[in-house]
Amino acid sequence: MLFAAAIVAADQFAKALAIQFLQPGVPKPVFGSLLGWYLVYNNSAAFSMGFGLTWLFTAISSIAALVLIWYGTKVRTLGWSLLAGLALGGVVGNLLDRLFRAPAFGRGLVVDFIQIPFNFPIFNLADSAICIAAVIVVIQVARGRKLGG
Question: What stretches in the chain show pLDDT beneath 70?
Answer without folding.
Answer: 46-50
